[in-house]
Design goal:
Chain A is of the alpha/beta class. Chain A has helices at 25-34, 64-72, 91-99, 110-118, 122-127, 138-148, 153-167, 182-197, and strands at residues 9-10, 14-18, 39-40, 43-45, 59-61, 76-82, 85-90, 104-107, 128-134, 175-178, 203-204. The longest helix of chain A is centred in the C-terminal third of the chain and has 16 residues, at 182-197.
């Protein structure tokens, strides 16, 4: 039996991660990227940078005009307006990584995730999986949102209401991870990636 | 939003594991059971115990007559004759574990796995996933089979030939794990279980 009947190569995993503000999803995605295990998919946005955010690391901060130009040239994988601002991820960047076997983690809201999921690109369909990160409880969510300290009361209330609406969608994802301790979360999140790397659908011979 | 919209309970994972003799699959399954993370599904067989094998731990060693009685009462999840001996797993044992949320690892040959996969039981379909363990290479497989020392040359040759035929089926499984070091194998095998526990299809609210 020739060796080429063994799996020899694999495509990258496209790990789509959603969850409300306060679920801890961005921290998890960043931690996985920091240990070098995945490429963190940097999105474009028209919203203003928050203190400490860096262009090209946290987001590509674009003007409305620049963003619209990308839309016209169909360069976004998906894009959506959330809380008045545009968010989107560039297609070619993601696909090139998947083709060379690099895993891509996409930290994306529910609207964006559903668009990526509905994408008819064969490579994307083969590489895609999705996980919803839930906060431990409603109480913990309230506390986490309050501790951010970047919002006035009205905005906080809006965020909480949005978060609760989003949470109701957890069962439409492939995986659901209820956040616990940071270490346990990262362990499970990493396991999810390791397992997805073993899926036959992405292995080739 | 009431708390019951969060996932609160889950069904067990039924992890069906196949791979040729010499792939290391039995060691992996045992290791996972030893750390208490899964219930190792003990099969029934009509073959004679090998030195060191214990009834009720390695297999339930049954007479041909006892085995046939279980078949008649439809108590097997699946059963098949391999190398002249009967092998089978009792249904109720597996399903009771899954219902109470315990994960069950089923170390089973390709024939048996395809029967379990085709089972029309709703609980089984919901809990089932499968993984094929491959040896690192054909050379490594030959070496591992030779080192067993329990077979004469003719039987060894038959086992090798069977193993190579089985290996060609790796792509019909959900996951494929190419065996490497024992530690790395266990890490990935455990990750697979951890990830499967997070699957929405087995979570309830």
């Amino acid at each position: 039996m020739p060796n080429h009947t063994f799996p020899t190569q694999r495509l990258g995993v496209l790990l789509v991660v959603s969850g409300p503000s306060g679920s801890g999803k961005t921290t998890l995605c960043r931690q996985l990227a920091d240990v070098g295990e995945v490429v963190y998919s940097v999105s474009c946005t028209t919203r203003a940078p928050r203190p400490g955010e860096v262009h090209g690391r946290d987001y590509f901060f674009l003007s409305e005009q620049e963003f619209q130009d990308h839309i016209r040239r169909d360069e976004f994988f998906e894009h959506a307006r959330v809380h008045g601002n545009l968010y989107g991820t560039l297609k070619t960047y993601v696909k090139q990584n998947l083709e060379r076997g690099a895993d891509v983690v996409m930290d994306i809201d529910i609207q964006g995730a559903s668009i990526v999921r509905a994408c008819d690109d064969e490579l994307v369909q083969r590489c895609l999986t999705d996980v919803f990160i839930l906060p431990p409880s409603v109480e913990a969510l309230k506390e986490r949102l309050s501790n951010r300290g970047t919002e006035d009361d009205e905005k906080l209330s809006l965020r909480l209401s949005n978060a609760l609406t989003e949470i109701a969608q957890w069962h439409t994802y492939t995986y659901a991870l209820v956040s616990g301790t940071r270490e346990h979360d990262l362990d499970r999140f990493r396991a999810l990636l390791v397992a997805e790397r073993l899926r036959v659908v992405r292995q080739q011979n």
